[in-house]
């Protein structure tokens, strides 16, 4: 039995993995119990999974994950209360079934906004009341910043402005209680322009008394990008605001963006790529450890290379679905990166 990742970093931060309910059994279940002390649902707790139709709830997958965390004494991250993806359309339809974003009448626009915020509050209240005793950290809103500057122009934003963000945090706090940790989660938080937009938004919200505890840095990154310096800078800027940082969706892709030159099979990946990836993981965890007072958890967006959302992205651009972002290979064997991280 190799040394445990969670034990190695026990005094610094949690080590987590994103899971689908079916991954809790067998080989993957064993790896989870040995190496991780935190889990998050890869898809099972998103709005489209929990409330596909208004008032019709499906708790099955989410409950399984909660049960596993409870039984194995693991921390639980909740992902995600509010997002523009994987949210069912019914949220954004008015009483007549028309898209709210098309409304031009000012009075009806106000009514739509009120209706959407009401639906959001009901969703948050219902979910939080069910899981509040089990969840430690909540992704309250996900990906609200636009890559090209400012706020993401999602239906949430078009219909409510920034009010949905404020109301989401206030509602989560109201039902989850004071001990709950509430996060604003996003990707490319290392990129200076996006980082600054997020920093501005969070500063404004904090000034208005909005209850935000921390920033979730997704960290869908590459071997050579972004730089360690930018990564450090981002953590430090949010720490200075008095916030916690969590690394919430870590994976280190072998490819650039877009991933248009993917290998055809896993066996085609040269050993050299795994060595470069190991150096990258080494530098990252060295940084995380150095900043351990400012980082409360580091979660990978999967367990082993046999199951990663990056395969779908590689396939979209290359026609082949191979990436290898984790510490365990497609047969759950430890990779060079594992030895760097455990060292
Ligand atoms: C991804 C899942 O991994 C996929 O299985 C699903 O098809 C799409 O969503 N940012 C997020 C995550 O916040 O929820 C996304 O997860 C990956 C990007």
Automatic annotation (TrEMBL):
Pathway per the UniProt entry: Glycan degradation; xylan degradation
EC class of the enzyme, as a word: hydrolase
Matches recorded under Pfam families: Glyco_hydro_10 (PF00331)
PROSITE patterns per UniProt: GH10_1 (PS00591), GH10_2 (PS51760)
Reaction catalysed by this enzyme: Endohydrolysis of (1->4)-beta-D-xylosidic linkages in xylans
E.C. numbers: 3.2.1.8
Signal listed as a keyword: yes
Sample GO molecular function, one term: endo-1,4-beta-xylanase activity
GO process annotations (BP): xylan catabolic process
Annotated keywords: Carbohydrate metabolism, Glycosidase, Hydrolase, Polysaccharide degradation, Signal, Xylan degradation
InterPro entries named in the record: GH (IPR017853), GH10 (IPR044846), GH10_AS (IPR031158), GH10_dom (IPR001000)
Active site residues according to the UniProt entry: 249
Record-annotated GH10 domain positions: 1-343
Family (UniProt): Belongs to the glycosyl hydrolase 10 (cellulase F) family.
Name used for this protein in its record: Beta-xylanase
């Amino acid at each position: 039995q190799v040394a445990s990742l969670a034990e190695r970093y026990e005094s610094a931060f949690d080590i987590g993995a994103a899971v689908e309910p079916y991954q809790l059994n067998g080989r993957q279940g064993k790896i989870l119990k040995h190496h991780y002390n935190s889990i998050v649902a890869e898809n099972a707790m998103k709005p489209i999974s929990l409330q596909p139709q208004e008032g019709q709830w499906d708790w099955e997958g989410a409950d399984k994950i909660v049960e596993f965390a409870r039984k194995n004494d693991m921390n639980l991250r909740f992902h995600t209360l509010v997002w523009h993806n994987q949210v069912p359309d019914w949220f954004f339809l008015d009483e007549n079934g028309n898209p709210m974003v098309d409304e031009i009448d000012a009075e009806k626009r106000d009514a739509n906004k009120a209706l959407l915020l009401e639906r959001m509050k009901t969703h948050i209240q219902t979910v939080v009341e069910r899981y509040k005793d089990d969840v430690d950290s909540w992704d309250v809103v996900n990906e609200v910043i636009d890559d090209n500057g400012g706020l993401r122009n999602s239906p949430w934003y078009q219909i409510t402005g920034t009010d949905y963000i404020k109301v989401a945090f206030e509602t989560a706090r109201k039902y989850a209680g004071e001990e709950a940790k509430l996060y604003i989660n996003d990707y490319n938080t290392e990129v200076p322009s996006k980082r600054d937009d997020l920093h501005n938004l969070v500063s404004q919200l904090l000034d208005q008394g909005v209850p935000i505890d921390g920033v979730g840095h997704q960290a869908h990154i590459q071997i050579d990008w972004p730089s360690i310096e930018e990564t450090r800078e981002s953590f430090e800027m949010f720490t200075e605001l008095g916030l916690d940082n969590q690394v919430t969706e870590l994976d280190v892709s072998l490819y650039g963006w877009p991933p248009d030159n993917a290998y055809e099979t896993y066996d085609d990946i040269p050993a050299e790529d795994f060595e470069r990836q190991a150096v990258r993981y080494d530098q990252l965890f060295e940084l995380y450890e150095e900043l351990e007072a400012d980082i409360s958890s580091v979660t990978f967006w999967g367990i082993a290379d046999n199951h990663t959302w990056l395969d779908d992205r590689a396939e979209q651009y290359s026609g082949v679905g191979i990436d290898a972002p984790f510490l365990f290979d497609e047969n759950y064997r430890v990779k060079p990166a594992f030895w760097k991280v455990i060292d």
